User: Fold this.
Amino acid sequence: MKEITRLLAYCVETIWGGVRLKEEYHKQSDLPKIAESWELSAYPGKECVIRDGTYAGYTFLEYLEAAGREVLGSKASGDWFPILIKIIDAARELSLQVHPDDAYGFRVEGEPGKTEIWYVLDAEEGAEVIFGFAKDVTKEAFARGIEDHSVLSMVNHVKVKRGDVIFVPAGTVHGIGAGITMAEIQENSNITYRIYDYGRVGADGKPRQLHVEQAKEVIRLTKQDVSVKPSGETISCGTYQKTELASCDYFTVTEYRYDGAVRLSTDETSFAALTFSEGAGEVVCQHQTLPVQKGDTLFVPAGINEYEVKGSGAFLLTTL
Assistant:
């Protein structure tokens, strides 16, 4: 019998992480600070874990092997799990970076590239992200900008607030500023080419590695405009409202804000992931009743005919 399962995130510590994921999003970790919680992750060595039910204690890859790939649905072709969902706490700014597309990722790194979306869960006054170049630049100018520290003057600096959505295609130079908590839904890849890191050093006291030559091969050097608006309109449905945040070839993400019950289902084409960003409640499916709170992520197998989210709050629903 297919079950909805709650997940225990794989937590990552970096020099820019904070304490919000432990204090506000109920992440369980011995790390003093958490930069990222990998909510739904089948990335080898950084997998989330099944929290309860028949497969409690299994890593997500072990769960897929035991439960069978039919829980993913027909859209999940191949052996590589398609997506990765994170919550990010940027207490300090992240490096300026870029991700390759699929063709380069598979050819050079042996895994997909990374297209992603950001959904801002919270942001301090004046917080900003970096997205794309403000005007066309050449590879030579880009390289000089890194050497003379002027690269930050070449990019778009975008003020953000709670509820903003940014779609970040592969090849886009980007960075997350200090004071931002966000959900990130992306291709299942861990390829990051760090371009500029504000002169910081890592835990070993040495400057963190840059990947400028790789970045030159994949970065989009033309001007890019940025939108912080969802891709769809908000639709009112009685006890809840839903808004499509972003949709692309890799995933569709919809926000649900609810006060009461939301009736949902999955068909045979795709699983669903629910990431709770506010409030509390429960998820009910046949013989199951699972309590949920802010910070929880649930995996819903393909082919679950009907389930309900009850309570008051908000969640992001991700499907293929």
User: Anything to note?
Assistant: The radius of gyration is 20 Å. The mean pLDDT is 97. Residues 124 and 179 are 5 Å apart (CA to CA). The longest strand covers residues 272-285.
